[in-house]
Amino acid sequence: MEKEVTIYDLAKTLNISVATISRALKDDPVVSKKTKKKILDLAETMGYRSNHFARNLRNQKTNMIGVIIPRVNSYFMSTVIAGIEKVTNEAGYHLIISQSSESCQKEIESVKTMFHNRVDGLLVSLAYDTQDTSHFDLFARKQIPFLFFDRVSNDNRYTNVLIDNRRAAYEATAYLIAQGCKRIVHITANSSSNVYIDRLAGYKQALEAHHIPFRPAYIIRNNLTQEAGTEAAQSIRQMQTLPDAVFVANDNCAVGCLLALKKEGIRVPQDIAIAGFNNDPVSTVVEPNLTTVNYPGYEMGVVAARNLIGHLNGMSDIDTTNTILLKAELIIRASSQKASFQKKG
Amino acid sequence: MEKEVTIYDLAKTLNISVATISRALKDDPVVSKKTKKKILDLAETMGYRSNHFARNLRNQKTNMIGVIIPRVNSYFMSTVIAGIEKVTNEAGYHLIISQSSESCQKEIESVKTMFHNRVDGLLVSLAYDTQDTSHFDLFARKQIPFLFFDRVSNDNRYTNVLIDNRRAAYEATAYLIAQGCKRIVHITANSSSNVYIDRLAGYKQALEAHHIPFRPAYIIRNNLTQEAGTEAAQSIRQMQTLPDAVFVANDNCAVGCLLALKKEGIRVPQDIAIAGFNNDPVSTVVEPNLTTVNYPGYEMGVVAARNLIGHLNGMSDIDTTNTILLKAELIIRASSQKASFQKKG
DNA sequence: TTGTAGGCGTTATCAT
DNA sequence: ATGATAACGCCTACAA
Q: Which residue is nearest to nucleotide D7 (CA to C1')?
């Protein structure tokens, strides 16, 4: 490895002090244009690059934002990251991304690593099985800003960016009811995350509002993959009386379920109407197209990142805002149009 | 922000020199057990955390690996990142991810940023319009290892991780021909990237091998989105003689095309057989399921990251290996089974 | 407009 | 077994 070029090397070559070099590199207006140009040109030709560590050591800032998420490889999450990346990059921050793989233990590890790497802030979506969020006390104690998105903490000291899951689920369920459905199955995750609890709550609330008794037997819990949806279809088919609708907590699982039901000769939506959640690309590929809730992933990433950076710049107080709700509207497509068979979207 | 605890604080409190503190924290056997225990206990209670910057400043290493990709929010890319993240994390490295948004200009910016942030190595998938890769000279000159994956450089000094696109395309096309197709349209990107050039080459080669004349009119170029696929279907429908097969360079576009053709009353695969590329989740959702080439994204990420880390550890020489080809086999599904109408997977 | 010098927290090299 | 001290490269009062 070649020896690194430092500002001292530049200074010596040009016979200028390191202070001026340093200022020129930061585009400090106090340095004359001529000198600045000379310096920048030399830096270029000598292949100079600033030393992050030395800089951070001085500045007590890393310009890094940590992101801890269950997995990167889902459509939703990669969309969120795209949004985060755009905002943070524009603000001159970099991202360190770490996957918890849905394990609370790995999440705790990640938090520690982020802490020791001195990220300036943290954006988190919790693992399936994370109940207690005390591992974030490390950050809270040092007043390092962090916030949760999508899968959030129920500790109300913290800021959360999310959608109104309860309400969206209410609307989806209410729509199914309006289509004449009365025996509505709900497929959800076996998780204590707010996301699924709230969707379940919205589902129940819609039933109640329309005087339909809630039946525990209509709740199916699995891991919400497409395969799990296929299996869920079997359970549904074997119920005493065939349900007339299924509201699934995500699109992948909904699609698996829909395809499996069709294979069994059950017509969608005539026999069973289906609604999903997320507006994943698959929802417009499956036939009939899937009614779903549009989940604004990119926007969520943008909002979460903006908020965090706002705190970092002292623009806003992390304790002021507590919850940021994004809009998530129901998208009605053919899979749930039981009342009339007009097709849309 | 609370004041950070440093080894000086520990030293002062215990009336011991910082040197001993430093050694104890690294579990240096030269420090007596008693002193070590005292020090570690105090560090714990005072909430000491080591300063990575100061350490890295000494050690001249960042433990960061840069990743530059066109976009994070595609199924393929997020899968690759998951693979990269796993390997790098296990090896104690962190990731800085930057999107070029398919723009060569932004890619150049990213390269500079990565350079200045002193990543220990770089993993790159090139933008659509990147032809010249001289902006990586910055890294080459300093002997900082980097390699390309998927969308690679044609500069043969560099290491590339990719699949044999030509061969995979050959196999897909040959399969269509074996199904009796003779008028095969190819939809590809308007890009100079190896990925699309090679797939086109494989397509041509298969035609040639089976004595089917290549017809430029059968090449449709677009941006390979699902919408573009829908439009492509229109062009196809309006051709003098209806083609009997379409080989699309990715699944999203293939799916858009397939759905649009079906809407026009064209039967798939009876009238037109279709094959895609990537084995994206949508390929098993669309009906009929899409014949496609399995693109091992996760594995590609793992291999690329392993290789890079190997170089970083001096395990392997970056100049030795030049091209790593991963297997990418054809997955035959219903959308192309024109010869017999048996359905699979 | 430019220069000087001290310090950010660690570790390695001496010396004790 | 422990201590003193000089780097690592950068930034910023303060001085000129």
A: B58
